[in-house]
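Anyone have tokens for Amidophosphoribosyltransferase? Sequence:
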Amino acid sequence: MAERSRLSHSLLDEDPAPQDECGVFGVWAPGEEVAKLSFYGLYALQHRGQEAAGIATSDGTRIQVYKDVGLVSQVFNEATLTTLGGHISVAHCRYSTTGGNNWANAQPTLGDTPHGTVALAHNGNLTNSADLRDRVTAIHGSTRYGEMRQGNTTDTALVTALMREQEGEDIEEQAMNLLPTLKGAFCFVFMSESTLYAARDPQGVRPLVLGRLASGWVVASEQSALATVGATVIREIEPGELIAIDSSGIRSRRFAESAPARCVFEYVYLSRPDAHINGRSVYESRVEMGRQLAREDTHDADIVIPVPESGTPAAVGYAEASGLPFAQGFIKNSYVGRTFIQPSQTLRQLGIRLKLNVQEHVVRGKRVVVVDDSIVRGNTQRAIVGMLREAGAREIHVKISSPPVQWPCFYGIDFASRAELIANGATMGQIARSVGADSLAYISEDGMIAATKQPRSTLCTACFSGQYPIELPAEDRRGKMLLEKDRPVAGENTDAGDGAAAEEAAVTGETAVTGETTEKTLAEAER
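Reply: yep, here.
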């Protein structure tokens, strides 16, 4: 099908902000409409992935999966959700960090095992995908197995395929044998016909939290999703922990020792401001980053303004610590996110103005401090400075509440390539001149870390420091498109033999169903 436009928090399409990997959600709640709970949970996690969305449910005997390319509100409607019955659900909203953006790569993925079917959703990025691909090839003679035979080119499909081959008397034991062999960042929410599971990598790179409903349990990438469905936060899933939830209750097992390396960029930008990670408020961390930035570099100025929305908490902190007045210098159009009509060259040149407008009366004649969370290529800051100049700002001092981004991420954030990063090889003065600012300052790495109130040894700062806490494979065995060459070509016979039945429905607008039925068309959904 034709790929749908996706929402973006980037202010310029040609200067995308760091993309937010994925959001995962799972619920075990007899008597509840779990598909609708999952829908609302995904809505709260939409900022983590806007390319595709999917929900799987189980009534105890069979699993159904419905997924498509697009935003949560585009993929699901009342009729679709009503068809997804059951008391267990796993859900996913995707930004692609492995494999392209297409229907075949939407999640949850399906796979069969000797002990039932698995539906799996993944947030993160595995660094040993090449090794996992080699294992699948060694077992089956090729990677054309399970969802991969339909063109799925994600590390998630590799994990789902390998679950079948693990020893163990049930799916829980199979998972306990498979999880220690995976490297990189992963938060898995998956289920069989009768049990909900959640697992987090030993470094705990991405967040994953457990919540309690009156009638059951919820797991999600962030607390905002728990609050949205009325669940009480219990705790984070621990690094290296597997939990299982079924009619017997909840149980926890450890598949690896905890060695925390939580992503510091979750505090800087990725997570919603109302999230808490390891006991620390993300919002307060960002405000403190602004305070620390002001302590490290304060300019004599008239006002402090944020780049909305991500720069707002840090700008609040900067204004507080510097004593300068906080002002809203930009008004953001809340209704701009996806464009169905391609702009003409004239409109394209307007760029950022479709999403932001300067309040001229606020900035004219003023010395302005403008606060943002990060700089990637610099095009966004260049456009913002240009707009402020046109509006009559007398001086423009750009302050960034994170250190210079100089290194790529291999753990689930899709930055620009290192060659495209403006801070790679350029001095601060050169960057300031490039974006047209009178001055530029970044927070120090020590200042950023102090704002999180986390020990440095428990954080991943690789995108700032180049120090990767999880070993990386050789360059030719990593990368977003590593598995794309394994995609079947049009017209190719992709019959995979055993293990194929669970993934029979490969047509947009259908739900794959396991157990009693092979496939159920959702024509009544009138999508």
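The first strand starts at residue 22 and ends at 28.
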